[in-house]
Amino acid sequence: MKQHYLEDYEVLVNIISSEYAKRYRMIDRDDISQELWLWFAQRPNKLRDWYEQHEPKDRDKLIAKSLRNAALKYCTREKAKTLGYEPQDNFYYEPQVIEEFLPYVLTDSYIIPIGVNDINYKPSSSDVSEGNTWLAVRADISSAFESINEKNQNILRLRFGSLNTTLKEVGSELQISEDAARKRVDRAIAAMIDELGGKRPFVDKDYSPPAKDVNDN
Q1: Over 50: is that where the pLDDT of 17 sits?
Q2: CA 164 to CA 158: how far, in whole Å?
Q3: Domain ranges across the chain
Q4: Which secondary-structure segment (H or E) carries 18?
């Protein structure tokens, strides 16, 4: 199995290592690569099952997603060490938070978003709506919007430039289906999340098949 993944995923490991080294310039690419190979070494049971149960294309998708999660988790931790803060101090923005704030950001309004208390999002020990926390969140989202490309900005302006524009209306404006409009909006929000530090790292552990009961026949 070890020889399998070394041969099968060397290119993928190099691509992901380079990708995250560009995002986290204080971290050496080779260190990220080493962490990704460690991911393989620590998950023999998971890899065995994936090799046995999935076609190569599906297995590759699972491994690519897991490696990106591993790279993000490692880089987040190493960045915190370098800059002198704790990883748990990081904020991870969910799509619902961005969707709540964008109409106000795009209309230059400083009213606290109507649904901010319903999205169960706490970037600190206090609620978003308390003190100046909501202003900091608003500032982050505004900065992220300015950082994404014009195509993504335009789709978000169409969707969130007012409080009442529906996905169906966005699709009609662009002469595409409502589902296609939703996908474009989702991609644009995902681009903003990347600018805001990426998704919350997912912790995936190795697993073993359940042990057979000695009393089983």
Answers
A1: yes
A2: 10
A3: 2-86, 95-195
A4: helix 2-23
Domain 95-195, CATH: 1.10.10
Structure tokens at 97: 């938070």
Under DSSP, is residue 90 helix (H, G, I), strand (E, B) or coil?
Answer: coil
pTM for the model stands at: 0.53
The yes-or-no verdict on residue 21 having pLDDT over 50 is yes
Tens of pLDDT, residue by residue over 148-188, are: 999 999 999 999 997 678 999 999 999 999 999 999 999 99
- Residues 209-215: contacts with CB under 8 Å, at least 24 apart: 209/45
Residues 6+ apart with CB under 8 A from 115: 100
Three-state secondary-structure class, residue 173: helix
Alpha carbon of 113 to those of 135, 183, 204: distances in Å?
11, 24, 34
| CB contact at 8 A, 2 and 47 | no
Q: Would you say 45 and 208 are in contact if contact means Cβ atoms under 8 Å apart?
A: yes
pLDDT confidence of 121, banded at 50, 70, 90? very low
3-state helix vs strand vs coil in the chain, percent to 5: 65, 0, 35
